[in-house]
């Protein structure tokens, strides 16, 4: 072996770790524990610091410790537990109906041209209509009780679940379909081995949006002819100028939204653990 060849080999060996380091440096890195709490904790710290320094109008934005005292008082009085349970019940019923409808319609539309012709255009039209604008019509149809509130939440939930699941089904590579046909898979085997794994990533995106949407819709709906619930509590507090009670309700909504989104993310990571993605 010549001196030139040895020199070239030595340079290649020396450059290889550099190339490896550069390739590894493109990824986000290892996942840190509880990183999603960093942003809210920073906001809380800034809020507390501004309140302690007297930079905030306490009538409009009370200090965090004032809001905490109000929350404890409402919980001790028994008002807050009743409102929380009522809101959770409404959100759960609406979310369950919306989830079932969104998945069923997405499967029917994504796996059949006839279903797509009958369903997709109707859902797109529904998506273009502001959901909260349907409230007066649903009150005329279903009355002003609990039924219309659950129906509106179900609509808010099913639309993102349908859109993302349908998009995932439409995005399945046709080569997998051809492979399933060559392997002689039955319809059930095709759905179980090809359709479901291909649709799950989009389904979980829609699920996260649906969970968040259920809480957003609930804020508005509980201010319409309601006698309990977090939205009703906040509406009553607005009439009496109790900004601390309003902030208690908003913080509870935010905590519920963060917990539910984190739960969906956890399930998604477990179910889709076979994937190698940038986030993993």
Automatic annotation (TrEMBL):
Topology in the lipid bilayer: Multi-pass membrane protein
Record keywords, A-Z: Cell membrane, Membrane, Transmembrane, Transmembrane helix, Transport
TM region(s), chain numbering: 32-50, 91-112, 124-144, 150-169, 190-211, 245-267
Residues covered by the ABC transmembrane type-1 domain: 84-264
Keyword field contains Transport: yes
InterPro entries, per the entry: MetI-like, MetI-like_sf
Gene3D superfamilies attached to this UniProt entry: MetI-like
SUPFAM superfamilies: MetI-like
The organism's place on the tree of life at top rank: Bacteria
Pfam families listed in its UniProt record: BPD_transp_1 (PF00528)
Localization annotation: Cell membrane
Family named by the database record: Belongs to the binding-protein-dependent transport system permease family.
Protein name: ABC transporter permease
Lineage: Bacteria, Bacillati, Actinomycetota, Actinomycetes, Kitasatosporales
């Amino acid at each position: 072996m010549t001196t030139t060849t040895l020199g070239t080999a030595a340079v290649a060996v020396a450059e290889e770790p550099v190339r490896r380091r550069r390739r590894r440096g493109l990824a986000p890195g290892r996942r840190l524990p509880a990183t999603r709490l960093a942003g809210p904790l920073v906001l809380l710290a800034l809020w507390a610091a501004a309140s302690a320094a007297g930079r905030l109008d306490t009538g409009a934005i009370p200090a965090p410790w004032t809001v905490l005292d109000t929350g404890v008082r409402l919980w001790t009085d028994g008002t807050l537990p009743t409102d929380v349970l009522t809101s959770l019940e409404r959100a759960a019923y609406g979310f369950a109906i919306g989830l079932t409808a969104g998945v069923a319609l997405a499967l029917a539309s994504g796996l059949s041209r006839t279903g797509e012709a009958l369903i997709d255009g109707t859902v797109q039209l529904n998506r273009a209509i502001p959901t909260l604008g349907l409230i007066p019509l649903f009150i005329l149809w279903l009355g002003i009780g609990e039924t219309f509130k659950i129906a509106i939440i179900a609509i808010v939930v099913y639309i993102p679940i349908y859109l993302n699941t349908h998009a995932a089904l439409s995005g399945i590579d046709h080569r997998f379909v051809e492979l399933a046909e060559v392997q002689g898979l039955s319809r059930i085997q095709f759905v179980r081995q090809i359709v479901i794994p291909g649709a799950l990533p989009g389904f979980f995106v829609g699920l996260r949006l649906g969970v968040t949407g259920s809480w957003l819709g609930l804020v508005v709906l509980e201010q319409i002819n309601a006698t309990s619930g977090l939205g009703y509590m906040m509406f009553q507090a607005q009439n009496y100028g109790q900004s601390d009670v309003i902030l208690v309700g908003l913080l509870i909504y935010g905590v519920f939204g963060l917990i539910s989104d984190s739960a969906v993310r956890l399930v998604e990571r477990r179910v889709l653990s076979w994937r190698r993605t940038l986030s993993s």
